[in-house]
Amino acid sequence: MDTKFSDQPDLESIQPERLIKYRVSDDGFAAEVLLPGFTYTDFDQKIGAFSFNILLSDYRSGETLVKAEMSFVYVDFKTRKPCPFPDWYNQLKEGQELTKPSERLVTPDIPHEAFKFDLQSAFSDIDHNGHVNQSVYVKWCTDAGTEAALKGHYSGFKGNIGTYPMNTFELKYVGEVLANEPVVISTWQDKDNHLVLHF
Q: Cross-referenced SUPFAM superfamilies, in alphabetical order (predicted)?
């Protein structure tokens, strides 16, 4: 497929000093961003973390099309653990405006009646950091939710969960899954709002 970037090098090969790579077309109407997976664990203010918001709008109508709120954690690639920002980064960011990371999500207690969905991570789920990519967890939750809906576990959801519009998806990463590991997904509806699903 011909794109505004067809005559340029592959995105993974540019900006070798950056983990997150990006480029904008000459006319300013197209952009590409490469966000490889990160090692996510619980984090607080003692480690390097920052948040930012992305808002994509229709430039003609002004209608908001996509809104994303993201938190990033600085990771030591040898220990695979969150760590403080290095001195060079702290000096570099002095001229930047970074928002405070959002509050940590509370890890929910799994109710005994939660629906259980078993699977095993595949090699195709793994990113270049050697663990399951962050997007795969969302897919797994969609698969588990669909199975739960088809088996009558939810009230109000009857089929493929992926066909229902999702307003908000909040994720808390507490560890990593590697290739060929067994995974059990528990899912249940919120006791106060049956339109809210937990995984």
A: Thioesterase/thiol ester dehydrase-isomerase (SSF54637)
